[in-house]
Amino acid sequence: MPRKPRKTRSIIRRGQDIQSWVRYRTTVLRYVQCIKSPWTDEEALSFWTANRGEIMREYLDTMRKKGQPFQRPQEYLDELEAKHPRKRTGWDEWHEPQTAAGPGKLRKDPVFETNEEYLRRLGLLESWEIENG
Length: 133
Prior knowledge:
Layout: H1 14-25, H2 41-50, H3 52-66, H4 74-83, E1 88-95, E2 106-112, H5 115-121, H6 127-132
Antiparallel strand pairs: 1-2
Helix pairs in contact: 1-3
C-alpha cells in the first residue's frame, strides 16, 4: 500500500517570528478573549527571553514609525522595574460611590511616574524620543 506524503508545517523565518511577536504585543488583540491568539503568555515570554535584543530593535522601530514614544514591551518594563522600582509621585484621592448607608469612603491610591519620566530618569530614552518628546 503506498504511503501518503507526510505534511509538515512550513518553517517561519526568524525575522517573521519577531515581527509577529511585536505585532501581537503592540495591538489590543492580545486582550480580546474571543480571538485565538498566535501566542500564549508562556510562549511569548520564552520567545522574549531567547530573542530580547532583536525584539527590542523591531519594537522600537515600530513605535518610531507609529509616532508613539516612550513605549516598551511589558516584559522589558517588568525586568526593569524589578531592578529599579518606579518612584511614587503623589496620591490620587477619590470617593467610593454613595450608597443607602451613606456617603462613600475616601480612598487614596498611589500615583507612580509615567513611562516617559521613568525612562528619562534611568537614561533609557532613544534619540528620536528625546528629539520629539
